[in-house]
Amino acid sequence: MSTKPQDSSDQTENSTIAVESPTPLASKKYFKRDVIANVVVVALILLTMEVWSKFTPEYIMPSVGKSSNYVVRIIGEDAIHILFTLFRLLLAVGFSLLVGSFIGAIMGMLKNVGPFIKSAVIIDTGVPALSWMLFAVFWFKEPEMRVFFIMAMILIPFYALNVYDAIRALPTDLVEVVEIFRPSRWQVLRLLILPHVIPYILMTTKAIIGYATRMMVFAELVSVSTGMGARMGLAQNNFEMDGVIAWTVLLVILNLSVQALVALAEKHLLKWRPEVSVR
Length: 279
Hints:
The protein is mainly α. The chain has one domain: Orthogonal Bundle (MetI-like fold). It is 79% helix and 1% strand. It contains eleven helices and two strands, in the order H-E-H-H-H-H-H-H-H-H-H-H-E. It has helices spanning 8-15, 24-53, 64-77, 79-109, 114-126, 129-139, 143-168, 172-180, 185-223, 228-237, 241-269; strands at residues 19-20, 277-278. A two-stranded antiparallel ribbon has the order 1-2. Helix 3 (64-77) packs across helix 11 (241-269) and helix 6 packs across helix 9 (185-223). The protein is globular, with a radius of gyration of 25 Å. Residues 1-6 and 8-20 have low confidence and may be disordered.
């Protein structure tokens, strides 16, 4: 018994994924949904803290009101430490972005030295963050250099490897078309590679900014006497749990603010790329 083969056009039609640009109404709906979810989660956390504080001493879990008062006190008296941490974080991320992207470009474009640099970068990723912190304490006398060194050694490999992967992901057809015009290496970098790797760099920044903030707190805790990490350590030494919670809340706000700046930069730099949604 023979069966009639399915028409190829039907197969193509069934396997097609429709892609459409999200409407402003849909984007507004998603934004409203995310805001409601965030409000509900924060409310549940605050409720849990308040209930917990009723059954434990203050050095275990203070009330929400007491922690809120500490936040207000920090903003009024110790806001300079927030600025210290923010400046160090932006400086470290910016430096790592530039140096890591440059290293990644060398890894992807120079076949003779690229494998050796890649090997060094991969070895760097295997060194624990704690080791870099201890190395910095022994190697550098200046506290600020310690923090900068720790953050750079932790963050640079992320950018280097992602830019390297971005260059490897360049479409072969596009590379061959560009090579027809016999461009210089600088023209290849400026006209072909740079536009292709910018989304990868922004994606890397969005992915590591939270991790970088946490590492900055650890670096400040072991290396300097200023900044949010150092103040959290001081609060812990004084058994001020409300202080630890207050500094943690401010760190979360700082992290979200920096992520919002990165998202704004991404929207501006990639405005040429249309946003799509799959249905």
